[in-house]
Amino acid sequence: xxxxxxxxxxxxxxxxxxxxxxxxxxxxxxxxxxxxxxxxxxxxxxxxxxxxxxxxxxxxxxxxxxxxxxxxxxxxxxxxxxxxxxxxxxxxxxxxxxxxxxxxxxxxxxxxxxxxxxxxxxxxxxxxxxxxxxxxxxxxxxxxxxxxxxxxxxxxxxxxxxxxxxxxxxxxxxxxxxxxxxxxxxxxxxxxxxxxxxxxxxxxxxxxxxxxxxxxxxxxxxxxxxxxxxxxxxxxxxxxxxxxxxxxxxxxxxxxxxxxxxxxxxxxxxxxxxxxxxxxxxxxxxxxxxxxxxxxxxxxxxxxxxxxxxxxxxxxxxxxxxxxxxxxxxxxxxxxxxxxxxxxxxxxxxxxxxxxxxxxxx
Length: 362
Description:
Number of domains: 3
CATH class of the largest domain: Mainly Beta
Largest sheet: 10 strands, antiparallel
Distance between the termini: 19 Å
Number of strands: 22
Helix content: 10-25%
Shape: elongated
Radius of gyration: 22 Å
CATH topology of the largest domain: Glucose Permease (Domain IIA)
Order of helices and strands: EEHHHHEEEEEEEEEEEEEEEEEEEHHE
CATH superfamily of the largest domain: Glucose Permease (Domain IIA)
CATH architecture of the largest domain: Distorted Sandwich
Structural class: alpha+beta
Strand content: 25-35%
């Protein structure tokens, strides 16, 4: 299922039951759509996609449909319904991708339907003394990652609210400086976080409100602070020089929790920063923009895969790799770089792609 939506093959007009925040069903005509992302794309993102495609491939029927989709969004539901009817009656090939995208837009139009939170969206409650007990059976301060794989093996997909709720507070990056190492394979082993350059005594802040689960010296982490947040995530801040919080402290987003250093297994002063859910490491760059110092989206989507979770922000665009495509070719198609695609997908720029692999492009 692609972002909680998939057309019913062989039955193009049967309503599809969906777990969505504004609608229970939507009529689909085949599997074609303009975008893989069915909600959350802003008009600016759609226009950026169209402009990048026109720049590298020129005008096409597809880019014309995108422009038409943007113009049609300003019409009333009655006008759009009449326009869809006219498309079916017109001569030539019926533009099912455009029709499906319009139907999805109508189904999710906030002014037309009341907003109801999806059943799988976890918001969190800061009134609880221990955050996110719905996900975690234990609370321990002796092990950075005490969670067995059985804690997440039966999960399928869920969403975590990151911002936009009073209890969740404001997001802050842990430290503003150059990223010196990314998430992914490094020197033959998995690097489960990112490294941020800093000087000894530089300030390190909490990303979200939460409760300090661990603040002590631990092996290669050195002096490490681990915070469980009310939205279910846990963040790790390692190689610190000094602690500014203690275990059990309630902290706010942006609060000083430690001073940078080079403790533990570190070749120089830097902050090792991790984001985990149920002990599974997530790529922070897949939903945090360190350049802009903000979240990519207020909702984090999690989909279980063989070895953990794929994490991506709500409302993004995916590309399915086709035979003969390279990362360079895909980057050109969407007006981006191989470096950026590798960064947000947690892959190597010179790594192999396989047919059907889904890559985030926006």
